[in-house]
Specification:
437 residues; alpha+beta; Heat Shock Protein 90; 3 domains; five-stranded mixed β-sheet; three-stranded antiparallel β-sheet; 12 helices; elongated; HATPase_dom; HATPase_C_sf; nucleotide-binding
Length: 437
């Protein structure tokens, strides 16, 4: 038992002696020193932004400025998360990205309702006192500790000297604290010992200050409980959508390479059997073989339609090539413009393809248009499909054109379908999808 206590004391003493020279200590020291000016910058950003917004509240610029400033605080929060990750090895999951609206008013509403932005603003305000306190602790313990610990050397070199009158009328040189002059070796060793205590205590004091900022970073710069749950649900849904797309692709491949090939072989065998019949074969037998061959051909045709409905093989060449094929096969001329710099996931490509196919079919059947335009752009993590025509207009979810089904389909991956189709035309339908489900 006694040996265990001695061993524990030695271990604790070793940790205390090693603390000032460990990587963690220097990393936390760097975090405190770098964090103080960043905290000051963040507080200035918040104060200036809110004062300007309040001062311009009587104009049309106050609210928009605030709507821009709140999401803008995310950038400073991102810097603090990066600093914590590099120096403190504290990995904080970023909150859900800010999604501005499409028009000015939607952007203003999104900015004012940006919960992650408001949490970043709160962090920038609350973290300032703790950051300044941490910096003060660094100066108090580290700076004064090093100065006191090395004071015997400074005294020998005549550095950092103060003067005070001696008892015999002479002048004494040394550190003066409370009227006591530390100029003799016993007193110099007392100062050195006090410096050692400060240096050995500094890592633990600074670690306590850093702990407060760790809690603030975790609580305010990461996702809140609801956002984290939404992010997890999106990740799970994306995995399920990708798995479903892969399963459908595998079914399409099995049908194409297996069942369809067997039906083709069956049709060929039936044709060969019919051709080898002689005149002694009854007409009924020949008729049954012909009917079986025709049924096989119809089954092959229907199976090909099913296969194309599961996963169009043309998508293997990419969405731009697939939509170009749709435009080329359209019953009316189509002007096509595509700008896809990043390929979407397979599920998103399939949804976009079938939306384009359905919309072009609607244009040809219902719009009375003689020309259509298809634009596909992919940027900023989103893909946008825009189909326009110069027809009679009046398209809508209740018009029998399948738009409601398309809207439900894109909604499964957080997509939107907007319809602009006045009675006199033209019709413009925009499908907005994430690049990855």
């Amino acid at each position: 038992m006694q040996n265990a206590r001695v061993s524990s004391v030695l271990v604790t003493g070793g940790r205390i002696l090693r603390a000032p020279v460990t990587r963690r200590t220097w990393a936390e020291l760097a975090y405190v020193i770098a964090g103080a000016p960043l905290a000051l910058l963040g507080a200035v950003y918040v104060v200036v932004s809110f004062l300007l917004s309040a001062g311009l509240a009587v104009t049309a610029l106050g609210i928009p400025l605030l709507a821009v400033a709140i999401p803008g605080a995310r950038g400073l929060g991102r810097v603090r998360r990066g600093l914590a990750r590099v120096l403190l090895e504290e990995t904080i999951v970023a909150p859900a990205p800010f999604r501005p609206g499409r028009d000015v008013f939607a952007r203003i509403r999104a900015g004012l309702r940006d919960l992650a932005g408001w949490r970043a603003v709160a962090y920038l305000v609350v973290s300032l006192p703790g950051s300044l306190l941490g910096l003060a602790m660094v100066l108090a313990f580290w700076a004064w500790g090093v100065i006191a610990f090395t004071y015997p050397i400074q005294h020998a070199l005549g550095i950092n000297q103060m003067t005070a009158p001696g008892r015999a009328g002479g002048i004494r040189h040394g550190l003066v604290v409370g009227g006591v002059v530390f100029d003799t070796w016993p007193r110099l060793l007392v100062v050195c010992a006090a410096g050692a205590v400060l240096v050995l205590s500094a890592p633990w004091v600074v670690r306590t200050a850093v702990l407060l900022d760790r809690l603030l970073v975790r609580g305010l710069l990461g996702p809140d409980g609801t956002s984290a749950r939404i992010t997890e649900l999106r990740r799970t849904r994306a995995h399920a959508v990708d798995e479903a797309a892969a399963t459908l692709r595998r079914i399409e491949r099995d049908l194409h390479d297996g069942v369809q090939a067997r039906l083709v072989a069956l049709g060929m065998n039936l044709t060969m059997a019919i051709e080898t019949l002689d005149g002694r074969t009854s007409g009924a037998t020949r008729g049954m073989l012909v009917t079986a061959r025709d049924n096989a051909k119809e089954a092959i045709s229907e199976l090909r339609d099913v296969v194309r409905g599961i996963h169009p093989p043309v998508l293997d060449a990419g969405l731009d090539a697939a939509i170009a094929t749709l435009a080329a096969r359209s019953a009316i001329p189509v002007d096509l413009r595509t700008e896809i710099t990043e390929r979407p996931s397979a599920a998103i490509e399939t949804i976009a393809y079938f939306c384009a196919a359905e919309l072009l079919t609607n244009v040809a059947k219902h719009s009375g248009a003689d020309r259509a335009t298809v634009e596909v752009t992919a940027r900023g993590g989103r893909i946008r499909l825009r189909v326009a025509d110069n027809g009679r207009g009046g398209a809508g979810p209740t018009g029998g054109t399948g738009l409601r089904g398309l809207a439900d389909r894109v909604a499964t991956v957080d997509g939107t379908l907007d319809t602009d189709s006045p009675p006199a035309g033209p019709t413009v339908i925009t499908v907005d999808l994430p690049l990855h489900a």
